[in-house]
Amino acid sequence: MKILALESSAVACSAALCEDEKLIAQSYQNNGLTHSVTLMPMATSLLANCGVGLEEVDVIAVAAGPGSFTGLRIGVAAAKGLAWTGNKPCAPCSTLESMAWSLAHTGLEICAVMDARRQQVYNARFSSDGNTIARLTPDRAISLAQLGEELKICGKPQLLVGDGGVLCYTTLKELGLDVRLAPPHLQFQSAWGVARCGLELARQGLLTDGAGLAPNYHRLSQAERERLAKEQSKGE
């Protein structure tokens, strides 16, 4: 199964072409340009350089959330555009689970964390057995204090991955927890992880079509929060 994967949930963006678990090619950029400028040319040139036509791709996978609201919208819109013409099935992948797949070989518990601001992180925890991962928690927005209490109860070493890793490492270390940072080349999101997560969704029959593909933000945007606050204050 050939999977074209897109990752634009944070500052960097990437695209990958995989066949089942095998990585055929990956392109990565972290040069400050907006994803609306870089992502689609990256994906189309990747296919061209591999000599693979879009009609040969079986699934379009995309990091659907959590992450940057703008980045997620750009990634999902690009995936929709690629899927629409050939009516390709789409895999709406958890950004956190996609990051965890890069550490499946470690055999450790994996704690995926992204900075959600407002003293929170987007987080999910996974176990790994050297080959695959298993989910221990749902994706959620959680305070560092809550996460620390949960990990105290768990009592197992945690491998931190994601752009919230350094922030969490400092705080959780101060609580006396056994936490370790993923190595730099595996610490952040990659399109290969999205493809690997998409493969699992395909195997489980959890794909959707372009029309059904949507971002999963996990909480309201700042504009939506402000609007609700105004409505509530008017109603008081």
Low-confidence sequence ranges = none
Q: Characterize the main sheet.
A: 6 strands, mixed
The proportion of strand residues reads 25-35%
Indicate the radius of gyration in whole angstroms: 18 Å
Q: For the residues shown, what is the average pLDDT?
A: 92
The CATH superfamily name of the largest domain is ATPase, nucleotide binding domain
Describe the structure.
- The protein has 236 residues and is of the alpha/beta class.
- 38% of the residues lie in helices and 28% in strands.
- Strands 6, 7, 8, 9, 10 and 11 form a six-stranded mixed beta sheet that branches. The chain has a five-stranded mixed beta sheet with strand order 3-2-1-4-5, with helices on both faces.
- α1 runs parallel beside α2.
- The relative contact order is 0.19.
- The model has no long low-confidence stretch (mean pLDDT 92).
What's the gist of this structure?
The chain has helices at residues 35-50, 69-86, 95-101, 144-154, 165-174, 191-203, 222-235; strands at residues 2-7, 13-19, 22-29, 59-65, 90-94, 109-117, 120-128, 133-135, 140-143, 158-161, 179-181.
List the helices and strands and how they pair.
Blueprint: E1 2-7, E2 13-19, E3 22-29, H1 35-50, E4 59-65, H2 69-86, E5 90-94, H3 95-101, E6 109-117, E7 120-128, E8 133-135, E9 140-143, H4 144-154, E10 158-161, H5 165-174, E11 179-181, H6 191-203, H7 222-235
Parallel strand pairs: 1-4, 4-5, 6-10, 10-11
Antiparallel strand pairs: 1-2, 2-3, 6-7, 7-8, 7-9
Helix pairs in contact: 1-2, 3-6
